[in-house]
Amino acid sequence: MHQKIKTLVEQSGLKYSITEDGGLIKVVFSFADGRTQLVFIDADPDTFEGTDYIDFDISSPICFETELDAGKALKLLQGMAGRKAGAVRIQRGMVTVSYDLNPNGVSPRLFFALVNLVAKEADELEKIVEPNGQKDRF
Hints:
It is a single chain. This protein is of the alpha+beta class. It has a single domain, classed as Yope Regulator, Chain: A (2-Layer Sandwich), CATH 3.30.1460.70. The protein contains 3 helices and 8 strands; from the N terminus they run αββββββαββα. The chain is globular, with a radius of gyration of 15 Å. The two termini are 24 Å apart.
């Protein structure tokens, strides 16, 4: 994990843990309605055409990939209309809301807000695709 990104996470005030393999930062948000939402931050530097850069992905699960049928996919597409951030992706066997960000110039306060926004968007989409919007698995 790149030190610049770890420092940004620490300065943001987020309570986090690191996955066993050390590759991802995990954050769990608790909302006023009693629901929680898991967020992963992929904080590894990358290379494109021989140029190194720092970039990270903030992602939060909606459902498992194996549960995504045509009806849920349509609900997700309809639910994404008007959302403030993120794209729906399949990552690590899960359907997620994801937001890519270059940390240069990002303040800890803005970073916290972006992670919180991704968590809220994923939680809202999880309610849309789950029967009666009641399941809270992530």
